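To assess whether the prediction recovers the assembly geometry, we first specified each molecular entity separately, as shown.
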Amino acid sequence: MIDILRDLGLPISISSNGPVIDETIALMHWLMLFLFIGWGTFFIVSLVKFRKSKSPQADYIGVKSHISTVFEVAVALIEIVLLIGFSFPIWASRVNDVPTSNEGIIHVRVVAQQYVWNIHYPGPDGIFGSTQSELVDEVSNPVGLDRSSFGASDDFITINQLHIPVNKKVRIDLSTKDVIHSFKLPELRVGQDAIPGMSIPLHFEATMTSNQFLKKMVGTPREGKGLEISCAQLCGLGHYRMRGYLTVDTEEEYNDWLSLQAEYLLEDNEEDEWGDEEDW
Amino acid sequence: MNAHSHREESFFRKYIWSTDHKIIGLQYGLTALLFLSVGFFLMMVMRWQLAYPETPIPFVGSFFGEDGILLPEIYNSLGAMHGTIMIFLGVVPLAVGAFGNYLVPLQIGAPDMAFPKLNAASYWSYFIGGVIMMGSFFSEEGAARSGWTSYPPLADIEVGQTIWLIGMVFLITSSLLGSMNIITTIVQLRAPGLTWRRLPFFVWTQLVTSFLLVLAFPPLEAAAVLQLMDRVAGTSFFLPSGLVISGEALAVSGGGSPLLWQHLFWFLAHPEVYVLILPAMGIVSEVIANNTRKPLWGYNSLVFSVIFLGFMSFVVWAHHMFLTGMGTAMSSFFQITTMIISIPSVIILSALFISLWGASIRFNTPMLFALAFLPMFGIGGLTGLPLGIAASDIYLHDTYYVIGHFHYVVAPGTIFALFAGIYYWYPKITGRRMNERLGQLHFWPSLLFMNGVFMPMFIQGLAGVSRRLWDGGLEYAHAAGVLQWNEFMSISAWLLGISQIPFIINIFFSLKRGEKVDRNPWEATTLEWVAPSPPLPHINFETLPEVHREAYEYSVPGRNRDFTPQTEPKKG
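The predicted structure of the complete assembly is given in tokenized form:
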């Protein structure tokens, strides 16, 4: 079933939580197929067998047995299995097993706003500086980071660029500055609404780098197109283009990227100082 | 006959300001059909943009912006209004306002609704709500553009929403008046001998539907007023503190919750799904019983299932909100209730399928639509399962899979049932049968193109394509492999539009040229077929009927006719 769904369009999953979700989707479709074929066969046989020309006189009673009750009980039992065996534990691990920063994980904040994903990295110290809505400046400080706060000096913010290392637990604290958005990484089977006024944690672990993924996509319509963050909740007229980029790096690539960001930060600070002097 | 029926009425009094449930039913029906075509038209325009992004729309482009290209904000408006019009101005008024109004008093052998003036008030409130909604297209701000779900904060800050909310208040008021009336009528005005167990299943579905409307709409009406206050009076029921919109801090006191709206909204909008589907099940059951020439299989379990569905529909609403940050306990609760509610739906559908066994099936147009309802609603219902299971919903939520799912329930589901109802009861309303050949010409292409529109949505949904995208996913890499379906679906949608032409011709053509029939052309058993066609103004029946038997006494053994009307006394 999972192969059929993949042929139809389900992308391959490249995260540690993907396989169980895919398995649930596949099982659901088995159940649907089983019910639909059951009903459909009965339906077509009935239509042919009991058309007026073949069956001029209807039977007042019709079906006497209550075999359909067995069928309904079976459906109920399958649903119970799906709930207890799959959905409850998957959900519990999704919302309860949120790792904390001191477990050696990658921890980033994602702050959505109309048509942009702001990605806030804590920098080498692993500590997020505090943010305030009063400090927000769309150009120079999109998340309202207070640079003077504890741990803020090495924080850096990227726009629409989420980098994570492969095979490492990632925790994202998701929030939004304005309206509801929905953070979706289709290939990682990750989805979570960003709700104004709330910071919601989500976690996952990528099992394939972007380069490996791109190699797998050669010869498909997706060839050359990497991983993306998509917005799944209507957020205004630019909803359709609220797309971010996800890059799954090797450990090495990721560290290189981090040091590059640190350099940029340094340059930015120097530029700011120059700017200040000009004003002076 | 009493003097009442002979009273001469002016044209205005008779057709416009009428208190006769049949005229009001027809007013509802014609207005709702008009709105259905408007809602469908909006979608046909949107489908152009999805199939051929950023190219000028042919014929009607100039209405939608310069160069005839649909702008994203107008696309969002059309989307929000398509949903609003289809649900609140089209399907519900047709299923409850038109069919409920016209048929409930007839099927229970009553001369009219319990409160005829309230009934007229209900229609006119609906009419005003409709005028306000349509008027919003021509207002300075344009129509609402935050989706039919109107989630704040977007709906609190986006233009066009104020008029939408005012329109909703009128539409909700209309539904409340109408449903109180239907409940009272069914409880109070049943003909002598019409016990609950003899009630046609259609009347049961209308009763449960009306209870849903009465109990579920008030929270949305309250929520609509709260959102209106947020917009016009500076309150912040749905706005938390610290919002920054386009770089500007939003000047409100804050402290509100956007999720509060979602709870209030879905507390209505989930039962609303059953408001859309239950009357359809009722219509289909009537048509199937009549055209299989045998009683409905499992009448008792049908009735219990529909009542149980009604109750359960109030405790599943948060399955629309799994991804809003829900904990394990709450998500488990709503998954359990969602799986529980799937069981009575399975029972109802199974009972209708089993009703076919041992039948003598007549394949006329109403029956074709009723039969097609079964597998189509089956697909719609089944595809709801992976969305109701939270684990699979993580991936499928807010994708085209959802759009495919609920459209299968409502379009080839409910709307097919409504077509079946129109073909089936047209002779009662006009005294003439609709043309069978045109009916077939309406049915077969409709069935084909409905599937052409909605089946590929599951494929796009599985690929992860989000709903409500102006460019149909062009922007996204993960949509690359399924984009080609956009054109296919659009062409199907336009052909589906063309397939409705035989239906429109048929309605008008048969009015004058249709085959003349007597009062019971389908040889049916229920009470509406005892009245003349059309039933007498204001009193319906020459003499009020008395009921002696159950609703579907077809092919009773030992009788020379294969139907026994409910009014026929039992001998001995």
